[in-house]
Write a structure and sequence with these properties.
The structure is a homodimer of 289-residue chains. With 289 residues, chain A is an alpha/beta fold. The first copy, chain A, contains 9 helices and 13 strands. Chain A has 2 domains: 3-132, Rossmann fold (3-Layer(aba) Sandwich), CATH 3.40.50; 142-281, 3-Layer(aba) Sandwich (Cytidine Deaminase, domain 2). Chain A has helices at residues 17-27, 59-68, 85-88, 92-101, 111-122, 151-169, 192-200, 234-242, 260-270; strands at residues 8-12, 32-37, 51-54, 73-77, 126-128, 142-143, 175-179, 182-186, 214-217, 231-232, 247-251, 256-257, 273-277. In chain A, the strands form 3 sheets. Chain A has a 6-stranded mixed beta sheet with strand order 6-13-11-9-7-8, with helices on both faces. In chain A, strands 3-2-1-4-5 form a 5-stranded parallel beta sheet, sandwiched between helices.
């Protein structure tokens, strides 16, 4: 992180997290050179930062650009889509990378991200987690909100943990919505916002429209914690509130809270709980009736 | 199944399967007395059959009605929603049942169905699977359609099997959609039609809009095979076609094909494959890249 390390390289997808990385790096006196992935990040957000917009297949060009700008450490973050081999249209450098990696790059949710990390490391870059730059992104265990989960919500959290872990074992999704012990929805590639939107229409009625149900969002077993950690933010809170949920449970030290003050404020304004749980607390109970 | 067994009792949810049961029973010379669950089945569909419409909480009344009509064997089938305790508003008989069963009736996808089977059996009824009446509902292993899965589709089927089994272990959903090794969606309580509808917007582009990807729909491990078997029909085929999928894989002897001639005809008209796989063929491969 010393100036000797050169500018921080940033491979930027969508959402707020890449912008938080830029702000935190600059606050610490470090310049950033960003590779904005076309169709994922909005170049307009990066207009005050040295950057280049690169299509997802132009991995060779991205690495040349990092080298030309003296980048030696790279952070990858932000929302990504998983492209098809067809959509990638690899440039010469990327084609070589894909040959090295093979079809693993197109398998599972994380294939391409894991492949990108491997290529960057083999090419001599150090891949840093975004949370090494944005220090408050990963909450310690504990309650972040004013509201706390009641006994029923804790039951739903336990069921959600069992489900998300089962999904994670087959490398799918990171979250589930549970209400009254019933799994309303599980996430694949549609993203958490879409999951919450559909669960709003699937929830059971409660007396006087009382909030209940939880969103559980955890790290996958075996996930590379330097890239693609599960993320929540104010939009997630708004989605959970609109779905009538009582709160959100995340993995302490594993789920990124993008803009923590704004996220907690949104939860408090809506009366939702937001809790970060220790992995050792995340013990699934028997789930079959 | 002899006339001595009295009329067949039918607890009917939504969709075509209850109507197929009625047609098959009558073709075999047996009368049917139906309990149509309010909000699940459409009473209009049952106007030519002796029946009573009963709300989901009136389990006590339903059992009285079966007794009054000499029913000793019962089939439960059709689409069901999982009600909240609040929505159930149990009658006196149902309240006694719920006390006997406890909160297990409201846990997991299958809690209430399993509870209903237990109550019926304890009350001296025999619970028959719908496939005992509709003989061609459960296909043997093999290809049902003209089209067959290619190597890529077989890969997607293998991945889908691993995902659906992992979900089934935590008593969630019965199906998943996989395209090019990527899990586009997994089912919780939204149902297969809703799953297919959202996957249409999540699929990767293919050259010339070529079909690819599969819907995999299997029996949950430990599922009571007398009730709530996974079901497909012509509407499922239409949804899979609209989502651009190449085909559908089901569990031989486990997934009900509601109207087999119409379902196969729909698959053939759309150029989709429809294959029933033997459990021993359903061997998950390593899915993490």
């Amino acid at each position: 992180m010393s100036p000797a390390a050169g500018p921080l390289g940033l491979i930027a997808g969508g959402g707020q997290m890449p912008l938080r990385v830029i702000a935190a790096a600059r606050a610490a006196g470090r310049e950033v050179f960003a590779v904005v992935v076309e169709g994922w990040g909005d170049p307009e957000d990066f207009r005050h930062v040295p950057h280049v917009v690169v299509r997802v297949g132009a991995g060779g060009y991205a690495i040349e650009q990092f080298r030309a700008h003296g980048v030696r450490q790279v952070v990858m973050c932000g929302r990504a889509q998983r492209p098809s081999l067809l959509a990638v249209r690899p440039d010469a450098g990327m084609a070589k990378m894909l040959l090295r990696i093979g079809k693993a790059a197109f398998q599972g949710d994380d294939g391409l991200l894991k492949a990108a990390v491997r290529v960057l490391e083999e090419d001599g870059f150090e891949v840093l987690p975004s949370q090494a730059i944005v220090r408050d992104a990963l909450p310690e265990p504990g309650l972040l909100s004013a509201a706390a989960p009641d006994a029923r919500a804790r039951e739903d959290i336990r069921r959600g943990i069992a489900v998300v872990r089962a999904l994670g074992m087959v490398d799918v999704g990171q979250c589930a919505v549970v209400q009254q012990g019933l799994v309303l929805g599980v996430e694949a590639i549609e993203g958490t916002d879409a999951l919450l939107a559909r669960c709003a229409g699937l929830r059971r009625d409660t007396p006087d429209g009382q909030r209940d149900g939880v969103l559980v969002k955890l790290v996958k077993p075996g996930q590379d914690r330097r890239v693609d950690l599960p993320t929540i933010g104010p939009v997630t809170v708004a989605g959970a509130a609109a779905a009538g949920l009582a709160g959100i449970a995340i993995e302490a030290g594993g789920t990124i809270v993008v803009d923590r003050p704004a996220t907690v404020a949104a939860a408090d304004a809506a009366g939702l709980f937001l809790i970060a749980l220790r992995p050792e607390e995340l013990t699934p109970t028997e789930t079959n009736p």
